[in-house]
Amino acid sequence: MAIGLTSELEEAIQRGYDQRDRENMAPTIAYFQALLAEHPDHPVLVYEVGGAYDTAGQEETARGYYERALALGLEGDILRRCLCQYASTLKWLGKLDESLAVLERAREQFPDSDAVRVFRALTLNDAQRGDEAVAELLTVVTGHAEVTDLGRWAVGLRGLAQWLADGRPE
Question: Long-range contacts made by residues 120-123, C-beta under 8 angstroms, separation at least 24?
């Protein structure tokens, strides 16, 4: 359970997700806005409102909510999710350096997170840093070689990932 997140509030948030229509986010935005009005400055609800705007393609509005949620204090998995979504929003807004800085913070706080690595790869790709993006994705994939058919190639692909990450040294 997140900071100040009662089981009732968790259920209310889940209801918002259950009713969400990604093609028409206005009702979901209104739902989470109303929930936030009942619990002003609740960091998780501020984050959820940001996520609803983000899903609606309103990145600039989402950005403000993500920044506010982070300032109000998030922790654990919700912090990780917020950092990933905030970084993605910054990427879509063309703020690639800011996105990478947020993802670096996320990587420091959640070093084992595949989600952080994938969002970082997407931003690196947009920043025309393809080798680093591929290296990041290879690191994710080879970290789960046991559930893929990579088998014996996993070690070699991890080496390739490191070589790409290191800038293709001679």
Answer: 120/87, 122/88, 122/91, 123/87, 123/88, 123/91, 123/96, 123/99
For residue 2, the Cα-to-chain-centroid distance in whole angstroms is 17
Q: pTM for the whole thing?
A: 0.88
Query: What are the structural domains, with CATH classification, of the chain?
Result: 1-74 (1.25.40.10)
Q: What is the pLDDT of residues 141-168, one digit of tens each?
A: 988 888 888 888 888 888 899 899 899 9
The span from the CA of 43 to the CA of 72, in Å, is: 5
CB 70 within 8 A of CB 86: yes
**DSSP category for residue 150:** -
